[in-house]
Amino acid sequence: MISTKYRDDPHHHGRVIPIATIDRVYVQNEPVIVGIHNLDVHGKRVLLLNADSYSGTTLFRARQLLEYSEPTELKTGSLVTVAPRSQHLDAQPDFCGAMLPVAKTDRRLPWRRGAPRGSTKALPTQTTLVVPTGLVATGKTSVTNSLVKELGFHPVYSDWYWFIYGLQDRASNPATNYRHNEHMIALCWSAAAMGLNAVFDSTSRWRETRDQLQDQGSRYGIRIVFVRCSCSEDAARARIRGRKHIGAHDFGTEFEYDRIRNEFQPMDDEEVRQRNLIDIDSEALTWRVSNVLHTQDLAATEREMSGIGNAISNHYFDEARSEWPKAATGG
């Protein structure tokens, strides 16, 4: 409707107004925003529209994700708002067509085909999220690229978002780190909700982050596979020195290596037993399955992990061997 109005309005004739569709899936009453992971609203004026707002949770989550990209201006609107059920003080839209009192919350809205959407036990499609973990220059991005090119996984490159949005205080501001990490994880769930296998290119250096990914993935019905990347410190630093850096705030520097190493929480034996885990040695160019969780889909998980390992070998390791004796085999 909005697109047609802009197209036909003589004051906006010839202007291209991009329209993007954002939806949500309720998984055990928790909304997962769908279709937002590829949106670039940085520096743009954005109007976020909801047909109807009951609890305000979906509008609140979508606004959080869009605001991360720092649009020039973000306004929200809803055709109908049901009051006063909002769970968030700032979830009320800037523009509202009508407000229904609580007594009318059961009234069926005219554009709904049936009753309001219920929740599901898991996402409609079984998907896999691969989570590389390791220090700088141990091969995480090369693992990610292998899965993208060999298996068609959707990538969530953490460093790319750092760079695009200029979050240069990440080394000194814990709040920036936390906000960024939450946004990246939300993008992973968004991709999975669209039926895509995804790979999260980040250090995943905190146990808390790995637990969060494991716990949420289990609730959503997403298979989580961790890939622990390692090599010697000498090899990692040699790779870093061989990189061509863009500037003072580039990623993968020796300063970053030392910072991440000081914060890194390695997996202990107890944690390993709680993960689907593949270990790769990006110096020796080898991989092995270190643990598989004994769930109902054990056989399917074993096949998936074998395919992941083979994709890493076929793309990353084969490419690295072809470049020997060069030192830059990491990512």
Tell me about this structure.
The protein is an alpha/beta fold and 331 residues long. The chain has two domains: 2-104, Rossmann fold (3-Layer(aba) Sandwich); 128-323, P-loop containing nucleotide triphosphate hydrolases (Rossmann fold), CATH 3.40.50. It is built from ten helices and eleven strands. The protein has helices at 2-8, 57-68, 140-151, 158-165, 174-193, 207-220, 233-241, 254-263, 269-272, 298-323, and strands at 23-27, 30-34, 45-53, 73-82, 95-100, 128-133, 154-157, 198-201, 223-230, 276-281, 286-291. The strands form three sheets. Strands 7-8-6-9-10-11 form a six-stranded mixed beta sheet, sandwiched between helices. Strands 3-4-5 form a three-stranded parallel beta sheet, with helices on one face. The chain has a two-stranded antiparallel sheet with strand order 1-2. A hairpin with a 2-residue loop joins β1 (23-27) and β2. The longest helix has 26 residues, at 298-323. It is globular and about 65 Å long. The protein starts with a helix and ends in an 8-residue tail after the last helix. 33% of the residues are buried.
CATH topology tier name of the largest domain: Rossmann fold
Q: What is the molecular shape?
A: globular
Please compute the radius of gyration using only Cα atoms: 22 Å
Order of helices and strands: HEEEHEEEHEHHEHEHHHEEH
Number of helices: 10
Beta content comes to 15-25%
Structural class comes to alpha/beta
